[in-house]
Specification:
By secondary structure, this protein is mostly helical. The protein has 7 helices and no strands.
């Protein structure tokens, strides 16, 4: 398995919780029992990453949403498509709280998720929002803290 697939899994679970208002652990369990399209069994490090992103995003939601709002001046979060907002939340969580993932990787992976799951103009929108967030939190173009 790859981190990309695990990131996609986390996005799908967070999206599900957003609409179904179910407890995060129930959503994770349900996803792996019913919806995981992978033929292989998920191993411990992969499950740990998925859970870290899902629970961490949920735990830090107000902080993450505040950064998204600040970076997208003139846009209320209610105006974002739900898909774009969930993609942004995953990426911002990674940018803030997962040290071993360079910011550029989080941005690129969010753009790739948008290409698959969102509208044609979403990848550039997401790239712009995340670039602004990286400036706000003091991370330069190469992904290093200033």
């Amino acid at each position: 398995m790859s981190r990309r697939q695990d990131r996609e899994r986390a996005f799908k679970i967070i999206f599900s919780v957003h609409f179904n208002a179910e407890p995060m652990q129930d959503a994770i369990n349900s996803y792996f029992a019913n919806f995981d399209d992978c033929d292989e069994t998920i191993d411990a490090p992969e499950l740990e990453y998925v859970e870290k992103v899902c629970f961490g995003t949920h735990e830090h939601l107000s902080e993450i949403d505040a950064l998204i709002s600040k970076s997208a001046e003139g846009w209320d979060l209610e105006r974002f498509s739900s898909v774009d907002l969930m993609i942004l939340r995953v990426a911002v969580f990674e940018m803030l709280f997962i040290e071993d993932i360079p910011v550029g990787v989080s941005v690129n992976e969010a753009v790739e998720l948008a290409k698959v799951f969102s509208l044609d103009n979403s990848p550039s929108f997401i790239n712009g929002v995340l670039s602004e967030i990286s400036e706000i939190i003091g991370i330069g173009r190469k992904g290093h803290k200033k």
